[in-house]
Amino acid sequence: MSDKKKLSMQIGMMSVNSLNTMQPNYKTIENNNNWTNTIMNDPPKHNRKKYLLMIILFLCGLILVSTVKNKTRNIQKEINKLQTNLNSIQFNLDQAILDNEVITSPENISFLAKEYLNTELKFYQRSQIKKLNNEDKNLTKVSGLNPISTNNKNVKKTPKIMASTITKQIEVKKNEIKKLKKLYSQPKTIPAEVKKKITKKIDHAKNELKTLYKSPKEKKTLDKVARWSAVQVVKLFLGIPVVPGR
Amino acid sequence: MKKNKKSFYFKDYNEKDFVNKNINLSIVKVSSNRITFLSFIFFSIIFIFSIKIIYLSLSPETFLINSELKGDFSKHRRNIVDRNGSVLATNVILYDVGVRPQLLNNKDKKNLLIKLGLLFPQLDREKIKKRLKKDAFFPIGKKLTPKEKDQFWLMGNKAFVFDPKPARIYPQKNLFSHVLGQTDDINEGISGVEKFFDKDLRDVKKKNKPLRLTLDSNIQHLIRKELINAEENFHNIGSAAILMDIDNGKILSLVSLPDYDLNKRISINSNIYTNKITHGVYELGSVFKTFVVAAGLEHKVIKPDTVFKNLENSITCDKYTISEHDKLPPDLTVEQILVRSSNIGSIRIGQKVGIENYKSFLNSLKILQRIKFDLHEVGDPMPFNWGKCKLATTSFGHGITTTPLQVARAYAILANGGFEVHPSILNNNLKLNKKKIISSETSETINRMLRKVVSLEEGTANFADISGYEVGGKTGSSVKYKNKKKLNTFVSLFPSSKPRYVLLVMLDEPKSAPNYVCDMKPTEKYPNGYKYKGETRNTSGWNTVVVAGKIIEKIGPILAINNLQASKNF
């Protein structure tokens, strides 16, 4: 049995490659002069670090790959989900656009116009339009007195119910003024006495409007006081105690 | 012995330790290589996934397109829109329904027949009954709407098989039937725009970008409506109109009546449904007088004030007698010949121009040859042999045929300063090199003359003198060879001072309408408007001109032409 074979028996399960790597060492053993130099020292410490680093890297890689893969899969799932939603939205949008196109098609619009609009328009002269503009201006002037403005502090301060009654009153007065104005716009047809009455009425209504506009709360309380005193006077005549229970 | 040897080695040289250490080192070395290899694989996988993430985050459009291709098949064809973006053709999913009778027993089959009879009485019950007996799959309904599909589905029968299919739908129904055309069962274009731009419409790269046409739905509707009204008043069997921008040839409206609902798939065999503007070839009559006058002016053989003296009321050429439609003065200038539409005067001008000059002029306007257009349905003008009599008849528009599209194009060239135009319905911003065909002087003169045809009292087109729009134009009345019935045409240009649009209106076989009262709007001449009671004549000057006037009055504000009357008064 050769020495090489003996050695292979000693190392048992060693691979052929490993054996080949052993060969130079065996030769050094044969060389008695050099044998002392052949004894290997312990593996250096930095090699251990290297192996540790390898293991850490391996573990990190393992974790990172699985994490990245999972993340990618989740992203892909999310994208697919969004894509499905997008397709559904796109489909609805297409349907809506189609509906819109059908509804707003010139044919449909002209049909609806024929059904619901008065298409028999009349021609107006420019002078007529001017007159209309002037009337508009007057109307806007009158409507400038509108006390329903939300900026009015007095109205803001009054309770809601009171404010609503005041606005109702203002509306009534406004209508009265409009009626009177309409009457007054044809001065030739109105007799002189009626004219005077109308002007008085207009003035009275205007004053009332102004007071309402300036101090609506005061106006309301004044009205209440007047009504209360009238009731008290009637009660006095009838013999009913003026302040019952006191 | 073996043992001794071993002990010798191990004891004296500590060989065991030495060998084991060497072995361990080799194993570690091998493991290190494996780890490196595994790390490489791991990092490669990480790298691949990282690239995928980056790709997904950086290229969303590409991703979307790809995924759309997978699932959404509703966009196999691009949408078609008009110049305002209104959808003219789009895709929807319709369903084909079939029955698998093998899944049904006899009782189920009977129930199915009863239910089908109740819900869909239009279906042939006997046919279905026979097919149910055969126990083989058969289709029961094609291209069902979602509502119809739901009706089938709600029957709850397991034998129904639904097959979704993309289909084309046209929200404007009849409005663009002759232009858009149709697709077949496999969604391929078979006529009109659908056929001509089939490849372009199926281009996946452009699928989200609609095919934009130059047509305008609103204008198209207004013109169509007026043509339908004309049918009620003049009882014509068909009509057509084209509105074109004279500078770039873009067609804003192309109507041909009768039309059909594109959503209803019916077999149309009658010639009456031909696209009269592009495909129909007609003898259009006096509208050709403008060409003979323009040819004369271009070749400088006549001037607008050139007088033709002693014009006969009728002449004979070969065996045919040519006469005037009305009695006209014997001496007429070139301008008067055009304004009063004198046949004999036009013949005299034609004779002065000569065959070669007139022929080359018509060829330069591409009147006598098939033109390129954005539809396959384009007619070929009928060829003929030139001669003295042919020159005479073609001078006033008889014995010469062409399509209304070509006439509109020729008028556009005459009015735009003489530049060539290419009629198109495709809205692209391609800048074409403008080729000069006729001189600016000729163009200006023609514009002035055409305006007089409408504005002067002796002109043939007074009814189209819509205040503020400076309408100019030429009437044309002809007689069909096959049934001796009329075909009236009016080609108008507006506003004449700087023409922008050409409108051609054609009525096929109109009848006289003596009871029709034309309600004319206020003009400078008649500030309160007037009512014109119909007359027995059946010429273009009465019916097509009235229709064209009404059309211009309605589309004028949409075209945003500076209405001169409006600007003067306000």
Descriptive report:
The complex is a heterodimer of chains A (about 250) and B (about 575). Chain A has about 250 residues and is mostly helical. Helix content of chain A is about 80%, strand content about 0%. Chain A has helices at about 5-10, 15-30, 35-40, 45-105, 105-115, 125-145, 155, 160-185, 190-215, 215-240. The longest helix of chain A has about 60 residues, at about 45-105. The radius of gyration of chain A is 53 Å and the shape is elongated. Chain B has about 575 residues and is α+β, with helices and mostly antiparallel strands. In chain B, about 40% of the residues lie in helices and about 15% in strands. In chain B, the strands form five sheets. In chain B, strands 1, 2, 3, 4 and 5 form a five-stranded mixed β-sheet that branches. In chain B, helix 11 (about 290-300) packs parallel to helix 13 (about 345-355) and helix 11 runs antiparallel to helix 17 (about 440-455). In chain B, about 40% of the residues are buried. The chains are: A mainly alpha (about 250), B alpha+beta (about 575). Chains A and B meet through helix 1, helix 2, helix 4 and helix 5 of A and helix 1, helix 2, helix 3, strand 2 and helix 10 of B.
Mind summarizing the main beta sheet of chain A? none
User: What is the number of strand segments of chain A?
Assistant: 0
Note poorly predicted spans of chain A. 11-24, 142-158
Number of beta-strand segments of chain B: 16
User: Which chains have the largest interface?
Assistant: A-B, 53 and 55 residues
Report on the biggest sheet of chain B. 5 strands, mixed
Calculate Rg of chain B over CA atoms: 38 Å
Class based on secondary structure composition and strand pairing of chain A: mainly alpha
List the quaternary state of the chains. Answer: heterodimer
Number of helices of chain B: 19
Taking all Cα atoms into account, the compactness measure Rg of chain A is 53 Å
Strand percentage of chain B, roughly? 15-25%
